[in-house]
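Reply to thread "Modeling small-molecule complexes from scratch"

Following up on the discussion above, here's a worked example others can learn from. I took a protein sequence and the SMILES for pyridoxal-5'-phosphate and predicted the complex. Inputs first:
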Amino acid sequence: LTRLIQLSATSHALAAIPPAGFDVHLRALADKAAGRDVVLLSMGDTDYDTPQPIIDAARHALTVGRTHYAPFVGAEPLRTAIARDQSAVDGGPRHADDVVVFQGAQSALHAALRAVADETADVMVIEPHYVTYPHVVAAVGAGLLRVPISRDEKGRPARLTRDRLERAASSRLRALIVTTPNNPSGEVLGREETDAIASFALDRNLWVITDEVYRTILFGGPFVSPAMHPELRGRTIIVNSLSKSHAMTGWRVGWTITPATVTPALRAIKMATLFNSPTFVEDAAIEAFRGARDFPAQFAAEMERRRNALVAGLDQSPGLSFVTPQGGMFLWMDVSATGLSGTEFCEALYSASGVASVPGGGFGPSCADFIRVSFGADAATLARAANDIRNFVASVT
Ligand SMILES: Cc1ncc(COP(=O)(O)O)c(C=O)c1O
């Protein structure tokens, strides 16, 4: 008999994270595979396929033997295209040398945190936050600090303020992760919020990691990011990917854009973990900035139509309360007026109608009253889902 071999503290920290609440989603996937009629609005993905020029470029790369090792920081033309794209957004100038290519934003986030935080540090996230942030923070051994949601006098989610950030801070705080547009809430940061983040980060000498994977899916207003704040320039790490902007969730292309002080660490982490990205995938990714450069705007326009359809379909439902999302692909609804928790609502809605959504709890402990519904499906599917959700709410209120 072998004695139990010890696991790392990281393994224990990861195991202690409560489940993210994807039970209904997993049930819906299994039911769908079994041929049942379900509506999957539980994922950060859409019915769009990757634009053809990108697929053609991958096919071509494979046929010409682009199947060998590549430079581990990422192919130079891809990093140049990423830097140019970012310069067009924030004025730059950004250079290829500021960019390290990773396998999706997820691995870029992990690398970014690995570069700046460790067991001696705390990392702050703002609820509702993307579900994997606690995992990433635990994976680098850091402590997690959460800014809980707060409500204004009308009971609606309040905007971010310096005071809210201060109340969650600790003396070990080293980095703050922000997401704009937000998953799950669809909220976007404005100048007031980036000013609050800037004064907080400067006074406390923090890194700011800005997750911008929904940057191109913005409905109206200008894109505002901590990366564009002049005082944050030297302390901001941008994380982004092609997953959402170019319907490339399965390709795994993401990156970091960093001040020169952090780039060597990120290059070394890339070498230690992924070594290099798939060569033919990088070739295809370059095409996202060339042959498919018009795709993000068209896609965002379609996502805005879908958002409008879902919002219009649910607006009059008395048990649901929400702020119209300003970007991203989700509607984030407070369901407490139905008397159900987010988890109860999701489960009962799925059993009654086959519409799969995600309960709020995975996005932070203060979010148990909420659910997240994706509007990544086509118009007919969203119309059916809105109808089913309305009928379900009527049946429980
Ligand atoms: C806010 C946010 N960050 C990061 C990711 C991960 O993106 P990627 O597919 O590029 O790893 C997602 C995916 O849903 C997300 O919603």
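What I'd highlight from this example: Residues 82 and 255 are 8 Å apart (CA to CA). The chain is about 40% helix and 15% strand. Questions welcome below.
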